[in-house]
Amino acid sequence: TDPSFIRNFCIIAHIDHGKSTLADRMLGVTGAVADRDMRAQYLDRMDIERERGITIKSQAVRMPWELDGQTYALNMIDTPGHVDFTYEVSRSLAACEGAILLVDAAQGIEAQTLANLYLAMENDLEIIPVLNKIDLPAADPEKYAKELANLIGGSPDDVLKVSGKTGAGVEELLDRVVQRIPNPVGNPDAPARAMIFDSVYDTYRGVITYVRMIDGHLSPRERIQMMSTRAVHELLEIGVSSPEPSPTKGLGVGEVGYLITGVKDVRQSKVGDTVTTAAKPSTEALPGYTDPKPMVFSGLYPIDGSDYPVLRDALDKLKLSDASLNYEPETSVALGFGFRCGFLGLLHLEIVTERLEREFNLDLIATAPSVTYEVTTDDKKTVTVTNPSEFPGGKIASVEEPMVKVGILAPKDYVGTIMELCQGRRGALLGMEYFGEDRVELRYTMPLGEIVFDFFDHLKSRTQGYASLDYEPSGAQTADLVKVDILLQGEQVDAFSAIVHRDKAYAYGVLMTERLKKLIPRQQFEVPIQAAIGARIIARESVRAMRKDVLAKCYGGDISRKRKLLEKQKEGKKRMKMVGRVEVPQEAFIAALSGE
Ligand code: GDP
Ligand code: MG
């Protein structure tokens, strides 16, 4: 295809503002998907995406559109809207010349709208502002058109008003994509360069790599080379998604399509990498490959210990489709054998856990999420700690924790309560900005460790659900952090160790000792439950010894009841964990960890 008849664009939006619905509507309006084949959220392939209504992996689709007698190829690249996947969003944006900025006409701008808009502007994309859901009775397009125009410049009259649901305004929007978004430019005679903006694992076909051609041409059966690793693969198939995969005679400048090489592991096909040909390789890779770094760590343990091999296998399989997932074996006194896993963020953690449980039929317990600490001891050694139980003993010189820049958008009535929450989480206010008459963006720097633990829940409940949140990494800072251990009869229970700010150590100690006191069954002897920083005890509870006559009662009673009791006890034994001399049912640990 002649690049002047190609338009590459994406839709950026806050979650739930209607991106998937609009994308579906575009597939219908352009005839890319026949009405009878249409199903809701056509592009969101994974079940979990459809159910939760979020897009996890981006997908690309090609649609024909005619304007003034000329047929254009519109490539729509779907991007994940959530902060955890910022890296994937930015790679998708780099594959486009323009972006539709989609905003719910009953909600206005939200935190993720802003975060993604800034990314789009950094990539020099042409922005087309659009208000969606104008069919809603609560829609206020006039008000929010002004808000949008204020944000990106231009007149409120330039803001298109559409409904992905009814289809109103969608044809005009497609016309505007053709008129406003620049066509791609590149050198057709140069060595081939294609940017990988997504790669997905398909059980039948192996890895499917989505690329945007920058220069040159790729043809079927050519040998291709990944520029970061120099690995060479045979090209088994090349084509475009329209939206079902259809093989083509190749891809040229500006085109968006897919490659299949028979490779089985997405790590061989990294998002952000440059593809060239083995015969005539390019010498200069396209900008922008960095490995996304895990930000949040958690131990994942099978509730039934015999599921450990299944969990290992499941993680290996997930890794094929999710290169950003990290894991290594770990053992815990309280929880047995499991894996320490690294995630891009909290949503990523949730999605991975849910996929493991659902797709591999596992019951899992996750330890409290932790971030990465750089701990320097008095003898000048620095260790990286992602698991609190590995926090070095002895004298500590300093501890560094990761920081994030946080943006919170909310109606202005909630400013007070949000500030209170952020200050309580050691946030430092960076700035505050009004959008329209009644909404404010608050910007903070905050320790990531303060956000991974129920921050979002608190934010939502304090603002009746009106606040939205976005964050990005922003270096590291030293802080007065300590490790709090929880001890049962003097023995440390690893899964409960936590790294917290000194000011919050006492509160954590009290919370955990009280929880465990309620959950640990009585033993033959008294069991002290303590919270400690090093050798210093900061909180203490105890489980009193069992009274002797409790057992005595069973004897002499009816025999079947006694047998039942004994059987129950045997069953329970299987799941008992020994901490020193103390017998604790695993359920108690799980309940204490999940705060139930
Ligand atoms: P996404 O998270 O941005 O992909 O949003 P979805 O497309 O999944 O839409 C979120 C919710 O808004 C769904 O319940 C949709 O049915 C609804 N929705 C999307 N577009 C419209 C629209 O134009 N009008 C109305 N009334 N509802 C819409
Ligand atoms: Mg969606």
Question: Which properties best describe this structure?
Answer:
single chain; 27% helix; six-stranded mixed beta sheet; eight-stranded antiparallel beta sheet; 31 strands; 596 residues
Radius of gyration: 28 Å
What ligands can be seen in this structure?
guanosine-5'-diphosphate, magnesium ion
**Helix content class:** 25-40%
Strand content bin:
25-35%
Tally of individual helices:
15
Question: What kind of oligomer do you see?
Answer: single chain
Indicate the low-confidence ranges by residue numbers: none
Number of strand segments: 31
**Strand order of the biggest β-sheet:** 10-9-14-7-8-13-11-12
Helix/sheet category: alpha+beta
Mean pLDDT: 87
Shape: globular
Q: Mind summarizing the main beta sheet? A: 8 strands, antiparallel
How is this structure best described in words?
This protein is an alpha+beta fold and 596 residues long. It is built from 15 helices and 31 strands. Helix 12 crosses helix 15. The mean pLDDT is 87. The structure holds guanosine-5'-diphosphate and magnesium ion (MG). Magnesium ion (MG) binds next to helix 1.
